[in-house]
Every structure is written in C-alpha cells, then in structure tokens.
Write a structure and sequence with these properties.
- With 276 residues, this protein is an alpha/beta fold.
- The chain contains 8 helices and 10 strands.
- A hairpin with a 2-residue loop joins strand 4 and strand 5.
- The structure holds adenosine-5'-triphosphate (ATP) and magnesium ion (MG).
- The site of magnesium ion (MG) has 4 residues, from helix 1.
Length: 276
C-alpha cells in the first residue's frame, strides 16, 4: 500500500505492451438498458470519458442517471450492451479486480472487524498480518476510527462505515480508484475534514481517481475535470476543466471563479433535474 510519504511512480504499471500516453481509464461509448418482461430502462447512452494517469476526475449527474451502473460496468460486475472499458490502452471490458472500488453502500463484511475489513486488500496481496495491521491502524487513526478497530460493522454509524469502506479502497493496490459518493453519509463538518484529508493524500500520491458525487463544491475542490451527466439515459453533457492550481488552500472556496463555476454547474444540474 502507498502512504502519503511514499510517492508513487505510475510507470510501475506500464509494461511494454501498454501505451504510456493512454488514459489510465477510458470509457468508450457505453450504453446499457435493463430489461425485464414488463419494462426496458435505458440507463446509459453512448457515454464516454477518460481519466489520465494521476488525474482526479468527478462525475456529477441526476439521481438515476446510471452513475453507479457505470461503476458496475467498469468493475466487470455488469455487462454493457455497447462500448468498451480500457486501462492503459488495453481493453478490460468485463474483467474483475482491476480497480480499487468503493461502492455506494459500504458493503463491509459483517463477520470481519472494522480493522480486518480495512486490511483485507493487503491480506489478499499476501502482506503479513502484522504489517497490514499497522498500516490499517495508521490510516484508521487519520480517519478518526481509532478505538473501533475490533468493532463489527453493524455497531458503527453509517458515516463511520463509509470511512472504513473508503480506507479499504485506499488500501487496495490498483492504480485507478473508483469512489461512489464516498462522503454522502457524513455530516457537513466531517465531510469537509474528509475532503481535505483526501485532497492531502491525493496530492501526495497522485493516484488516478474517478469519483461520483452530488456535491458540486466537493467536485470543484478535489477534481482536475468534472463530467456532468444528463438525466437518464446518462450521457456526458459537458466536461469541465477545473483551473485551480495545487495544492488547493481552503480559501479557494471564496475565489470568485470557484463561486461562478459552482453557480453555473448548479444551474445546469437544476435544468437536468427538471427533465426527470
Ligand atoms: N440490476 C438492475 N436491474 C434493473 N435496473 C437497474 C439495475 N441496476 C440499476 N438499475 C436501474 O438503473 C437506473 C440507474 O441506477 P443507478 O444506480 O446507476 O443510478 P445513479 O445515477 O447511481 O443514481 P443515484 O445518484 O441515486 O445513486 C435506475 O433506474 C435503476 O433502477
Ligand atoms: Mg448511485
């Protein structure tokens, strides 16, 4: 696992068969309709996006526009009707285990303690339990979970479970992290602490991140690019490049450009919500 002090070289992952200039993750023309005997729900329509190595990309879109479905497709859990998923220029459509994934529901294993959930990716990689435990504990301390190492998931609040699930994704070794609304169950203050925390970790490690959020300010604070999706069937309405240099200080929230971008995106989202 990488720690904030352990600067990561993306070149580790690039073999001679891979294209060093290719996006870390590329979604090409994904369409998906769910059908049963009574109805067809057209969820995604020709959706394309890309995450370059070390880029932080967010997706914002109305509820039901297929964002979580897109993550299931990226993770190989759902098959698309059309389109492809590529990593470092190689097609991986349908392949499992290629991304560090935090699902919208924390999905912690109920029979494992919080600590054993967090260290699972390291355990699967064959790291000794003692080393994995000390890594897990240091991250848990930074996420405010100290004292709950031996607790079972059902005894924690929704926000605490979400933080544990986030740490489990962080401890996963894959280069690309897909985070599905990682902070949605947190109160405003904890959310803002976790955003700052994620920003600090990310600025040190520069992993490639694709994050779903409904929170425009969060997307602007953390991202290099934001994809705005339409109402269902979800397709990309616009890609917004976020111009602020890093490291990004707290004061950025009051920057006139930040505020006008936030207002513009909110107006676009309101328009889309009304189409639902
Ligand atoms: N396995 C499935 N079978 C049938 N329909 C599904 C399935 N998974 C998702 N859907 C439908 O696809 C649509 C999109 O769902 P999805 O969870 O991807 O939306 P979302 O954009 O993540 O929404 P939210 O912002 O509320 O999390 C919904 O109408 C949902 O009912
Ligand atoms: Mg969702």
């Amino acid at each position: 696992m990488r720690t904030p002090s352990d600067t990561h070289s993306r070149d580790d992952h690039i073999t001679s068969a891979e294209d060093a200039h290719a996006p870390a993750l590329e979604i090409q023309g994904i369409s998906k309709t769910f059908s049963n005997r009574r109805q067809h729900v057209h969820v995604l329509d020709n959706l394309s996006l890309e995450v370059h190595p070390g880029e932080f990309v967010s997706i914002i879109g109305p509820s039901g526009s297929g964002k979580s479905t897109l993550f299931h497709i990226i993770g190989g859990l759902t098959a698309p009707d059309k389109g492809s998923i590529l990593m470092d220029g190689l097609e991986i459509t349908g392949a499992k285990g290629r991304i560090a994934y935090m699902p919208q529901q924390p999905a912690l294993f109920p029979w494992r303690t919080i600590e054993d959930n967090v260290l699972l990716p390291e355990e699967l990689r064959g790291t000794s339990k003692a080393a994995a435990r000390s890594q897990a504990r240091s991250w848990m301390e930074r996420a405010g979970l100290t004292g709950f190492e031996q607790a079972y998931p059902h005894t924690l609040s929704g926000g605490m479970q979400q933080r544990a699930a986030f740490l489990r994704a962080l401890m996963s070794p894959q280069e690309v992290m897909c985070l599905d609304e990682p902070f949605s169950a947190l109160d405003a203050l904890t959310r803002s602490d976790m955003q700052r925390w994620l920003l600090d970790i990310w600025e040190d490690t520069r992993r490639s991140v694709l994050m779903i959020t409904h929170h425009i300010e969060e997307a602007l604070l953390l991202s290099d690019s934001i994809y705005i999706l339409s109402a269902r069937p979800g397709t990309v309405l616009q890609r917004v490049k976020v111009p602020f240099p890093r490291p990004r200080p707290e004061a950025i929230l009051f920057d006139p450009t930040f505020i006008s971008m936030k207002t513009e995106i909110a107006a676009m989202m309101r328009e889309e919500q009304q189409k639902r």
